[in-house]
């Protein structure tokens, strides 16, 4: 050993010498042999001097040598003070090497490391993005707890940097800071949330990585970015792709319903093929009932090209995504790509084969066409060989078994004996799985018994034993043959197997068995423990069946066993003696000794070692190791009912600078319908999928909206022709489909919008909503509306979230009076972008003339005191038959006074006016029941107005009330603990005064409607409006 | 993700370590050495090893082990693929990925590793970007640096890092603009005793060497693109274009790179260019055996088969071999029991053969199975699948590049069972 380390020293010294040789100008040139003869201490002295010299080249030399020391794992920490001084060096290479040093040793020398911090803080402001980025990298890599606040600040700033490269580094820094101080989690999540919105492909992978590390359970942060991530995926760098795909797989499993139809788990392709027409039809019907969420489809479609990636990790990631979330019929595409990876290096092969092994257990069909790709080459490493063998076994069926057995014959002869033994086990498994070949295999294995190699013979014996055990038929010949082998074979397991087999069948070979016992009695003392136990068993069995011949022999063996060194054997001996040898003390059991020893034993099951691996996500470390690795994130089961799909809708505002009127009509309707009136109509009568396809294509950059539309149209057809699901819910008779759609919580978007307020209440609410949605699947409309109202409340977690009701469009200017220009307006119920006291109003202009209308703008305004208006940008020209939607904001000062103004074209001016319904002067707010009650308690007396409503009981189901109230006013539901009370909360747009609406159901189909608000005028108007609506049928 | 990296040579010395997070002691490698000992053969060291606190994921490349330390769940292929990328980068920078080369350039290696990973997550792995950040060592540069005091480290962010074509450097300039493509096909086959094909398929790659100025946009089309059954692409290739038109359209990286790799499905019959007649037998109860193999050309499409090498892993009981080749030369290593016969070219008039006696260990039972023959060969100017490049067009730049395509067919994993 000492000579070894000496050689190593010499080598390293040599390495340094060459390195120094390259630097021809090194001022102080230590001789090549220097390192060899001087002590470390002295050497470091020398380095210190070099670091303190004022020549960059000397410093650089010193740093290079220090880095060399670090690389070799030698301790260079005592140079810390000398090195740290150079952190501000102008020479970029010195600087970088100092960074390397700092990151390595800062943790050990925390105090000194602080000296360097100011340099980094300065560098963080450098105009050069590379310098900013590397300063952030080093700063965040210095694991010194004191600087956590500084790091936090730096990360926050960097996450808003103009350079995507710096932002990428910020994403990395998040993880570093989190591992240094997990208490920063909340703040870091905010940064993650911000960075997730980043549109740069450079950032995407890193921030998702940070997400996975810091807050993988905050799946709600992904909703808004889901479509963006899907669309960017192809352009993200390959490492990011892997991380994103894994994350999206998990996401998909929580957000979409299962695309796997019941009963087609295994090889549905094959089954379909042979199925009768009837069955197929039936299946087709079932299939129709399921429509894939367009977002689900988007993910599957956008990942497919990545199967062509050169990076094996990406291919594997896509493969596992398809395996876990794609419909079974589409999973087939991955097999080709996986088989391609088998050409790669051994490590990749190893992992890929493991995953194929797991897949091939469940779905043979997928890999059958590639059977020959798994044929073993004599040059493969053993671990690859055994994996290939495993897959071949899984793929074996009646059709290919004969080819496979021929192939196995070659393998059995392999020089790699470990592999040959594995092949024999494989043959055994094939023999049990495919009954046609059991006899062939058995014969083949018996032939192997005369093999010259002992390992092969031993393995064959063990496998034959298992096979015979499974087949109670007579195999006397084979047993006799094996009995003969006992003379030659020495492998303990095999000997034990033979003895056990003879004991089990001792009545079938009455002549041989006692003789075998005689022979083994002679060799008993020199046998392996395993064999000894079996000799005892054999003796016991023979004693019971053939005591005449074997009584003495058995007693001899029992005596030997009694004094054996192994206590297991002594125990067994004592046990057997008590049981079989009758004496006065023997208990009741000995009567049953024969039954005990010669009971019918269940045959062992020959199973794949990969059988239980499928509960791990494919492609993960845990799957490879078959144990749960630290930080493994379980893949959840498909939800029974999909959570609300509209949470993934992205407001177009960011792109179009224009508020889109949010969901009309159906409650699940959302964004979009912004471009044309006709589309709006379609949407309002259709189901959510349509609107999703719309927003999907809006956010999409790949222009695949056409296809998307197709699929979504399908789905809308499916959903009971998309008609009024509202009426369905009223009647309380709902198809499952409709129920599902109806209950989808709307615009959870609030959570994503970056407000921390209500953070806690939100999470609790969301868990509520989840639990209730599960409930809902079993019960009917009542519990459904529970989840609805809770979902509703989630939606209003933030004020900006729209409420989804049928849009009411009001005429602003009739085309007759407008000389062909028609205008209508509606309230999108979005917070206004022009001012937070304004109500946003969308105006749709239509040109019904046959000429262009030019320069449409707003002219003179006649507004009551205090009222303000933000006009839309003039429309240059409107084509004949054209229509355009513009948005404006009006501050109504919380009154229902009319805003009058002139709508002007190039030639004319028309006086028009907008009078807001009182319900539009509100914005929904999120509130817990407790808060609601507290607020209500403060708004009593003259701030409270109430009325009694009488209506038919079916109008008082919670969902109907919700629907009606929300139709009239832009309020948000408050989760309610009582079935008979529903609460809604909102605030007025201008003053922000609370507006609390309570509907309390009483006996005798009456209900009490209570409104609490400071704004008594609005309150009473609202009460007046609500009353008739609620009492209507 | 990736916590630390240890480089270990064949004799078990850890000669380089790099940590991206807190320092992990070298002793963690003991688990690796243990597994290595158990595996006996380097090829059999499991790539993923679980230890009480860490997971070790390793690759074996060029007689070196790259052992990475992982602490939490991560797709193992991610790490494996990355480690190979590191090895590729070393190869690219130093011409070889060997212990000596890494030790000689330890500073550059360290700078590279620093750039390639940040906190264990890959930061820059494209060679074009890395080369702008850290210049590869050349003798000329080290002389220039020592005179001018300039450094090997770039001080601005490589343009590629920010663009949506990260694989290409900006401002590339050549006086001779050239674009060369090598179509290399390998035949993977298993031939059984009787000479019939058990399994055969063609694996091909197109390697490109592009030295073009500016930002050329190339499109490469084939006469018969349908042949390509399964293709994997360099990220530069526009997938949509391939899907719709079967044309490879791309802005190439600068320098050498692998454009695509493809497989020609095994459904198509693969022409096997050589046949082997063999007669290997070991006599029962005697310490010798006969060895006789002859190689002949078959369906070689009029091209010469050259560079033939036959490698045989003889059974362990073989002590020595006494053979006479009619052509070429042979060696037998009595330690590893590997017989290598370097044949060279086949001339159809006189087929090369290797005949002689095998000496066995006396007393040992005769080998169960005859060894299989691994054959290497090369056929120039031929793509065995019949793939042909149709044309190469360049857009976006004015000059006329010099273009060239070369075809080669090789034996891949070509095995004859005897």
Explain this structure.
The complex is a heterodimer of chains A (1033) and B (418). Chain A is α+β, with helices and mostly antiparallel strands. Helices cover 53% and strands 9% of the residues of chain A. Chain A has 46 helices and 15 strands. In chain A, strands 10, 11, 12, 13, 14 and 15 form a six-stranded antiparallel β-sheet that branches. The termini of chain A are far apart. The N terminus of chain A is likely disordered. Chain B contains eight helices and 23 strands. Chain B is globular, with a radius of gyration of 25 Å. The two termini of chain B are 47 Å apart. Chain B: It comes from Propithecus coquereli.
Structural descriptors:
heterodimer; A: 1033 residues; alpha+beta; 5-stranded antiparallel sheet; 46 helices; 15 strands; disordered N terminus; B: 418 residues; Beta-Lactamase; Immunoglobulin-like; 3 domains; 9-stranded mixed sheet; 8 helices; 42% strand; cytoplasmic vesicle (chain B)
Largest interface: A-B, 111 and 101 residues
If helices are DSSP runs of H or I spanning 4 or more residues, what is the number of helices of chain B? 8
Helix content of chain A: 40-55%
Tell me the major beta sheet of chain B: 9 strands, mixed
When the domains of chain B are counted, the total is: 3
| Mean pLDDT across every amino acid position of chain A | 75
Tell me the total number of β-strands of chain A.
15
Structural Rg of chain A? 39 Å
- Terminal-residue CA separation of chain B: 47 Å
In the predicted model, the low-confidence regions of chain A spanning at least 5 consecutive residues are: 1-39, 263-280, 653-797
**Please, what is the average pLDDT of chain B?**
86
Note the overall shape of chain B. globular
Class computed from helices, strands and strand pairing of chain B: alpha+beta
Second CATH tier, the architecture of the largest domain in chain B: 2-Layer Sandwich
Rg measurement of chain B, Å: 25 Å
- Sheet-strand content of chain B, in percent, reads 35-45%
Do you know the CATH topology of the largest domain in chain B? Beta-Lactamase
Tell me the total number of β-strands of chain B: 23
Largest sheet of chain A, in brief, is: 6 strands, antiparallel
């Amino acid at each position: 050993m000492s000579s070894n380390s000496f050689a190593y020293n010499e080598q390293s010294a040599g390495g340094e010498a060459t390195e120094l040789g390259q630097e021809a100008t090194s001022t102080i040139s230590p001789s090549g042999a220097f390192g060899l003869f001087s002590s470390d201490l002295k050497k470091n002295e020398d380095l210190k001097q070099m670091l303190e010299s004022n020549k960059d080249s000397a410093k650089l030399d010193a740093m290079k040598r220090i880095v060399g020391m670090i690389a070799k794992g030698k301790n260079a920490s005592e140079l810390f003070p000398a090195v740290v001084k150079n952190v501000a060096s102008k020479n970029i290479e010195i600087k970088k090497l100092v960074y390397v040093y700092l990151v390595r040793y800062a943790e050990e020398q925390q105090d000194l490391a602080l000296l360097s911090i100011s340099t980094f803080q300065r560098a963080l402001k450098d105009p050069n993005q590379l310098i900013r980025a590397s300063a952030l990298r080093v700063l965040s890599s210095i694991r010194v707890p004191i600087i956590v606040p500084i790091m936090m600040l730096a990360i926050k700033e960097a996450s808003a940097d103009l350079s995507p490269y710096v932002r990428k580094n910020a994403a990395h820094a998040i993880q570093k800071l989190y591992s240094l101080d997990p208490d920063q989690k909340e703040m870091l999540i905010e940064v993650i949330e911000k960075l997730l919105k980043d549109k740069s492909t450079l950032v995407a992978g890193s921030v998702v990585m940070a997400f996975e590390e810091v807050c993988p359970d905050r799946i709600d942060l992904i909703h808004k970015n889901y479509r963006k991530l899907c669309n960017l995926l192809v352009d993200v760098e390959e490492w990011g792709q892997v991380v994103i795909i894994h994350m999206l797989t998990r996401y998909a499993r929580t957000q979409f319903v299962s695309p796997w139809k019941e009963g087609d788990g295994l090889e549905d392709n094959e089954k379909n093929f042979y199925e009768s027409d009837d069955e197929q039809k039936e299946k087709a019907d079932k299939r129709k009932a399921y429509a894939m969420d367009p977002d689900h489809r988007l993910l599957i479609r956008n990942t497919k090209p990545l199967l062509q990636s050169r990076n094996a990790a990406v291919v594997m990631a896509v493969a596992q995504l398809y395996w876990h979330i794609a419909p079974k019929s589409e999973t087939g595409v991955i097999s080709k790509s996986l088989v391609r990876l088998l050409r790669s290096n051994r490590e990749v092969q190893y992992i890929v084969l493991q995953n194929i092994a797991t897949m091939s257990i469940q779905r043979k069909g997928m890999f059958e066409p590639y059977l020959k790709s798994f044929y073993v080459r004599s040059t493969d490493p053993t671990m690859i060989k055994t994996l290939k063998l495993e897959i071949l076994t899984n793929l074996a069926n009646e059709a290919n078994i004969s080819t496979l057995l021929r192939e196995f014959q070659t393998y059995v002869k392999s020089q790699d004996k470990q592999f040959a033994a594995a092949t024999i086990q494989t043959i055994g498994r094939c023999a049990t799985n495919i009954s046609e070949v059991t006899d062939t295999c058995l014969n083949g294995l018996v032939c192997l018994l005369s093999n010259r190699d002992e390992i092969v013979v031993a393995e064959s014996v063990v496998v034959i034993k298992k096979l015979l055990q499974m087949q109670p038929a007579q195999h006397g010949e084979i047993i006799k043959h094996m009995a003969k082998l006992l003379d030659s074979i020495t492998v303990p397991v095999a000997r034990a197997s033979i003895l056990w087999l003879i004991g089990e069948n001792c009545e079938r070979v009455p002549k041989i068995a006692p003789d075998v016992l005689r022979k083994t009695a002679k060799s008993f003392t020199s046998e392996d423990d395993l064999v000894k136990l079996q000799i005892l068993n054999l003796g016991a069995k023979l004693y019971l069946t053939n005591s005449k011949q074997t009584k003495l022999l058995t007693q001899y063996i029992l005596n030997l066993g009694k004094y054996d060194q192994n206590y297991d054997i002594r125990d067994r001996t004592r046990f057997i003696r008590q049981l079989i040898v009758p004496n006065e003390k023997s208990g009741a059991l000995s009567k049953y000794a024969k039954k005990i020893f010669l009971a019918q034993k269940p045959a062992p099951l020959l199973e794949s070692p990969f059988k239980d691996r499928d509960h791990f996500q494919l492609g993960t470390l845990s799957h490879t190791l078959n144990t749960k690795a630290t930080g493994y994130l379980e893949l959840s089961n498909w939800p029974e009912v999909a959570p609300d799909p509209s949470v993934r809708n992205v407001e177009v505002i960011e792109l179009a600078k224009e508020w889109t009127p949010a969901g009309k009509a159906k409650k699940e309707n959302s964004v979009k319908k912004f471009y044309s009136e006709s589309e709006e109509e379609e949407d309002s009568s259709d189901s959510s999928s349509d609107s999703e396809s719309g927003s999907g294509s809006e956010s999409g950059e790949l222009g695949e909206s056409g296809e998307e539309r197709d699929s979504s149209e399908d789905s809308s057809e499916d959903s009971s022709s998309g008609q009024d699901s509202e009426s369905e819910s009223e009647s309380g008779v709902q198809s499952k489909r409709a129920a599902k759609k109806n209950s989808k919580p709307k615009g959870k978007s609030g959570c994503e919008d970056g407000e921390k307020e209500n953070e806690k209440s939100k999470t609790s609410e969301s868990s509520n909503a989840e639990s209730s949605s599960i409930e809902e699947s079993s019960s009917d409309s009542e519990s459904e509306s529970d989840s609805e109202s809770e979902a509703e409340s989630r939606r209003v977690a933030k004020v900006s979230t729209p409420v989804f009701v049928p849009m009411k469009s009001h005429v602003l200017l009739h085309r007759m009076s407008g000389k062909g220009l028609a205008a209508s307006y509606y309230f999108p119920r979005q917070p206004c972008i022009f001012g937070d006291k304004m109500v946003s109003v969308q105006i749709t202009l239509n040109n019904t003339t046959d000429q262009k209308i030019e320069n449409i703008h707003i002219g003179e305004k006649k507004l009551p005191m205090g009222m303000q208006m933000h006009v839309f940008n003039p429309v240059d020209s409107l084509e004949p038959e054209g229509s355009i939607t513009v948005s404006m904001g009006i501050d109504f000062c919380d009154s229902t006074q009319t805003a009058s103004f002139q709508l002007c074209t190039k030639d004319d001016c028309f006086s028009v006016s907008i009078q807001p319904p009182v319900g539009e002067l509100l914005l929904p707010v999120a509130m817990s029941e407790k808060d609601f009650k507290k607020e209500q308690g403060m708004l009593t007396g003259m701030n409270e107005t109430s009325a009694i409503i009488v209506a038919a009981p079916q109008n008082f189901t919670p969902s109907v009330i919700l629907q009606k109230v929300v139709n009239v006013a832009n309020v948000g539901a408050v989760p309610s603990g009582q079935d008979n009370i529903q609460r809604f909360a909102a605030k007025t747009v201008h003053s922000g005064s609370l507006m609390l609406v309570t509907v309390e159901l009483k006996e005798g189909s009456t209900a009490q409607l209570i409104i609490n608000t400071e704004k008594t005028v609005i309150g009473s108007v609202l009460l007046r409006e609500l009353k008739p609506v609620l009492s209507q049928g | 993700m990736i916590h630390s990296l240890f480089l270990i040579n064949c004799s078990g010395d850890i000669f380089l370590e790099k940590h991206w997070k807190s320092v992990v002691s070298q002793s963690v490698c003991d688990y690796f050495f243990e597994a290595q000992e158990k595996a006996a053969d380097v090829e059999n060291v499991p790539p993923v090893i679980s230890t009480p606190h860490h997971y070790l994921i390793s690759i074996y490349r060029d007689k070196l082990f790259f052992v990475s330390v992982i602490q939490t769940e991560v797709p193992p292929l991610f790490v494996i693929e990355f480690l190979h990328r590191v090895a590729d980068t070393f190869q690219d920078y130093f011409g070889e990925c060997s212990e000596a080369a890494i030790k000689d350039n330890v500073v550059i290696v360290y700078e590279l590793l620093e750039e390639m990973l940040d906190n264990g997550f890959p930061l820059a792995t494209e060679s074009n970007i890395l080369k702008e950040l850290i210049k590869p060592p050349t003798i000329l540069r080290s002389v220039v640096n020592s005179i001018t005091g300039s450094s090997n480290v770039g001080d601005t962010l490589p343009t590629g890092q920010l663009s949506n074509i990260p694989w290409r450097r900006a401002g590339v300039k050549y006086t001779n603009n050239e674009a060369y493509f090598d179509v290399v096909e390998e035949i993977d086959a298993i031939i059984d005793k009787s000479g019939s094909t058990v399994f055969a398929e063609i694996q091909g790659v197109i390697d490109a060497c592009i030295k073009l100025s500016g930002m050329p946009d190339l499109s490469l089309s084939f006469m018969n693109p349908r042949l390509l059954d399964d293709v994997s692409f360099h990220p530069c290739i526009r997938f949509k274009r391939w899907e719709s038109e079967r044309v490879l359209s791309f802005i190439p990286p600068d320098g050498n790179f692998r454009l695509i790799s493809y497989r020609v499905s095994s459904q198509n019959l693969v022409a096997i260019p050589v046949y082997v007649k063999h007669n290997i037998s070991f006599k029962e109860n005697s310490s010798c055996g006969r060895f006789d193999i002859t190689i002949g050309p078959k369906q070689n499409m009029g091209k010469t088969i050259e560079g033939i090498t036959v490698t045989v892993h003889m059974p362990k009981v073989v002590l020595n071999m006494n053979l006479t080749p009619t052509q070429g030369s042979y060696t037998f290593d009595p330690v590893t029991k590997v017989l290598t016969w370097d044949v060279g070219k086949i001339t159809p008039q006189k087929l090369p053969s290797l005949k002689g006696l095998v000496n066995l260990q006396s007393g040992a039972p005769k080998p169960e199975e005859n060894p299989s023959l691994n054959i290497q060969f090369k056929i120039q100017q031929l793509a065995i699948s019949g793939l042909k490049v149709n044309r190469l067009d360049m857009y976006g730049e004015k000059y006329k590049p010099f273009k060239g395509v070369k075809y080669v067919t090789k034996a891949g994993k070509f095995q004859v069972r005897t």
